[in-house]
Amino acid sequence: MAKYLISFPSAAMVVPDGEWEVVGRDAHAVIDEAKAAGVYVFGGGIDENVPPVLVSADGSVAEGGYPWAPPLDGGFTVLELPSREEAVAWAARIAKACRCDQELRVFGFDPRS
After folding, report:
1. How many domains is the chain partitioned into structurally?
2. Which domain holds residue 90?
3. pLDDT, tens only, 72-88
4. Residue 62: inside a domain, yes or no?
5. pTM for this one?
6. What DSSP assignment string belongs to 1-59?
């Protein structure tokens, strides 16, 4: 079984006023279903009120992330599933609940991790 990252950037989630409560309910329902199915690993969102820092190998800390990279924000869910097809199906369920497209990526397995 592989672990899959299902995610979206904050800007992708465009929800009309008055619909946030329903979107939240629908999204939590899908997560509850993933937990009940035993495929949920973890999930959440980047706290955009806390700015990132870049920590160097010597331990020095600089404000901000990589200056050349786009900002990392939005929501993330990690599921452990037996196939890419099942991952696509779960990503579609999350996309429907969140009202926005989801990116799907597979984690490379590191037997020493």
Report:
1. 1
2. 2-47+71-106
3. 999 999 999 999 999 99
4. no
5. 0.89
6. -EEEEEEE-GGG----TT-HHHHHHHHHHHHHHHHHTT-EEEEEE--TTS--EEE-TTS
